[in-house]
Every structure is written in structure tokens, then in C-alpha cells.
């Protein structure tokens, strides 16, 4: 995450030139070169401890601040989607790993223990999201129960998760029948929990999520 303090401040770039920060996004920023008076778009902007402006890449030569800002916004959205995909991929990999490590014997797994281990590393919301997205992408797979498919669709819809934003996420690799059992554990543990609770944040609202479709 960038360490930008404020817009409209003048910094010395890593190339020794003076730049004024214009619009700052999460992963990108617009800067104006004091010497050429043109604009540039920088990615992954950061301010070093000694006050120098650093970046990963820079596109020079924008004569229009409006065009530079449009480009910076588009790049920021791209980086944001890449970050989201990587984060959920990490959650899925940890789910696969901890389910595998929960093996007892004779094809028996301690899925409750796997869930307890995974939420030490990730929020319950992230775990549920990774599982729900996996089931949603494999809706054709009959090894997932209809109850869990309905829950996955409900979780995604209720939380406004845009599945098209996770086109680089290929889901958990755990065998579908085993992941279906893990999904039962997830549903049981997050039922009637608020969004803030699932995210591991302080409870600031009373609206609760209907987590399990068709729950008896």
C-alpha cells in the first residue's frame, strides 16, 4: 500500500526531478514534472523515509491532466483487481493445505479443526468467500450439495461480490466431495453472524447476514 501523505505536495523524484502530486489513487498517482510541465502516471507510489518520491513504473508525456488522471484510474482499477485475486488465491491455498493436514485415517478428516486453523490466518468472511466462489464456479459439479450451492449463491449475492472480478481465481483444489463437507462446517460456524464479525472487525451494526439458504 502506498505511503502517500497528501495530494498537491511537491517531492523530489527518484530521478532527482521535482514533481507535484496531483490525483492520488490506491495504487497509482498523477504527477506534474516541474521542468517539462507535462504530466506522468506513476504506479505503486511511495514516499521514502528521507522524503523522496518513488514508484514502480512511470508513463511520461501526458499534456492533459484529465487524460493522465483517466489513465491512472484505469491502472488503479487493474491493480486493485489483481490484488483481490491474489488475496483470495492465498486464502484458497491455505484452505487446501489445512484440510490436507487434517487427515486422520481411512479417508477421514477433522474438518472442524481445519476450519479453526484457517481462521487463525484469515477472517471467516475471506474463508467463506473463497469457498463460495469455488462452488459458484463449479456449479456443474454434482459432488456439491444443492444446499451448499444455494448457500454459495446467496452469500455472493447478499454481499455484493462481483464474480467477474475474480476471473483469475480458479478456486480451491481440494476434492469437491471433501470441500462440500468443509462447506458444511463453514456454514455452521458463520450462521447468523454480522458482516463485521465475519471480517474480524468491531461490531458497528445490527444487520445480520442470512448465511445458510434452506437451513433447518
From TrEMBL:
Residues 67-189 form the DUF3849 domain. Pfam families: DUF3849. InterPro entries: DUF3849 (IPR024383). This is Conserved domain protein. It comes from Ruminococcus albus 8. The lineage of its organism: Bacteria, Bacillati, Bacillota, Clostridia, Eubacteriales.
Amino acid at each position: 500500500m502506498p505511503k502517500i501523505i497528501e495530494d498537491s505536495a511537491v517531492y523530489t523524484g527518484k530521478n532527482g526531478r521535482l514533481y507535484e502530486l496531483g490525483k492520488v489513487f490506491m495504487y497509482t498517482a498523477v504527477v506534474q514534472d516541474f521542468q517539462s510541465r507535462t504530466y506522468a502516471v506513476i504506479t505503486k507510489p511511495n514516499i521514502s523515509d528521507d522524503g523522496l518520491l518513488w514508484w514502480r513504473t512511470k508513463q511520461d508525456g501526458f499534456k492533459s491532466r484529465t487524460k493522465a488522471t483517466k489513465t491512472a484510474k484505469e491502472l488503479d482499477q487493474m491493480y486493485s483487481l489483481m490484488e483481490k485475486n491474489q488475496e483470495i488465491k492465498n486464502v484458497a491455498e491455505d484452505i487446501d493445505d489445512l484440510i490436507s493436514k487434517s487427515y486422520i485415517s481411512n479417508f477421514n478428516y477433522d474438518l472442524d479443526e481445519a476450519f479453526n486453523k484457517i481462521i487463525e490466518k484469515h477472517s471467516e468472511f475471506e474463508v467463506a468467500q473463497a469457498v463460495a466462489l469455488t462452488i459458484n464456479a463449479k456449479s456443474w459439479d454434482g459432488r456439491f450439495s444443492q444446499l451448499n450451492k444455494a448457500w454459495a449463491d446467496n452469500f455472493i449475492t447478499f454481499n455484493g461480490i462481483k464474480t467477474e472480478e475474480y476471473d483469475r481465481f480458479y478456486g480451491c483444489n481440494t476434492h469437491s466431495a471433501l470441500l462440500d463437507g468443509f462447506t458444511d462446517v463453514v456454514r455452521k460456524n458463520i450462521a447468523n453472524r454480522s458482516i463485521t464479525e465475519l471480517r474480524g472487525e468491531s461490531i458497528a451494526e445490527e444487520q445480520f447476514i442470512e448465511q445458510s439458504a434452506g437451513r433447518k
